[in-house]
What we know:
- Helices cover 55% and strands 5% of the residues.
- It is mainly alpha-helical and 136 residues long.
Amino acid sequence: MNDDLVLINSSMWIEAWRRTGDAAARECALRWYDEGLAAVCYPVVLELIGGARTPAEVESIRTHFAHLPFLSVSNKVWEAAGEYAFALRRKGLTIPTADVLIATTAAVHEVPLLHRDEHYRLCAETIPFADISPSF
């Protein structure tokens, strides 16, 4: 377990960075970041860079995450994510692959996940990650 680290999903970063974003979500994400307890994984970075509008935004994202601990998306994570995706689909839930991968990363690394995305609430009964997201 990575004591005290929290994996922060792209949905929370978007709220934190958006000028019109939810103030409570911004405060929550930035508190973990400012305390040096925010962690990231490459699927989160992929989602954020994929949604960037300019090269300057891409560079800003890279700079923002440069000093954060990165949780590896190892073969163990990929294999578990495949099993979880299968189990979710058997329950009639079609969850985006990136979301399954991010939730699995949190579960395998035993770190809580902070998000603002309904897909993770749907995953929570199948993927054993700690969901610490408040209701916004």
